[in-house]
């Protein structure tokens, strides 16, 4: 089954996975509806890839018993087709669907599709640098931003990479990358590289002393710790958003059940 993508970068030998009703019934135990299209899936397989589907299939009793489960989130059907393929070992990612796949992978805490989508952006995407930067900034992909800034050699390159917005609106690590790269282009890198010191001959009887980290090593270590803290904060924010959405959905279902009960009581 083709998913409607027409990007010329797609390799003909990479066939799309078939999640239609024509597949063997032993290969699926659930049906999801996205934009009117039906996708036949294995619930346990999707639950292993995403906490969202784990809760949907095995903790949300009402929805898990439906023959067809509609996905209420705004999910493009083509992006969902590619999402399922990534969880099943396939990979036909192209620039037409990449942002949709990134969005639902991050929204559903699905690490495997998310990492594959990030790898596609880094190595195979034909999007313009500014388009890649916009995606990297939106989802805070530090490794992609670092790779993009590494290609900047002139002020003109920097101008073609950055969108027209206030510098203060960028993520903190992006502002650091901008400043550092502009300093390097101007020939005034900071911190100033420390010249290597020739080793001093040691007497055979002396015990070697462990080298003291230089300023660059200390700064690099602090930057790494800061980045880890930021990534942890992002993960916590995603998990909070997911739990908030789950609570909202439970509240909506509870109100619907109460309304249905009230109507029954009025009829009696």
N-end to C-end Cα span: 50 Å
Q: What do the pLDDT scores average to?
A: 81
Number of helices: 11
Multimeric state of these chains? single chain
Strand order of the largest sheet: 2-1-3
* SS-derived structural category: mainly alpha
Number of DSSP strand runs: 3
Main sheet record: 3 strands, mixed
- Kindly estimate the percentage of residues that lie in beta strands according to DSSP: under 5%
Shape: elongated
Uncertain parts: 1-13
Helical percentage: 40-55%
C-alpha Rg (nearest Å)? 25 Å
H and E string:
EEHHHEHHHHHHHH
Overall description:
The chain is mostly helical. It is built from eleven helices and three strands. The protein has helices at residues 43-49, 51-58, 61-64, 77-87, 98-107, 111-123, 129-139, 142-150, 155-161, 172-185, 215-267; strands at 30-34, 37-41, 69-70. Strands 2-1-3 form a three-stranded mixed sheet. The protein is elongated, with a radius of gyration of 25 Å. The protein starts with 29 loop residues before the first strand and ends with a helix. Mean pLDDT is 81; it is low at 1-13. It comes from Caenorhabditis briggsae. Residues 247-268 are annotated as: Disordered. This is BTB domain-containing protein. Residues 28-96 form the BTB domain.
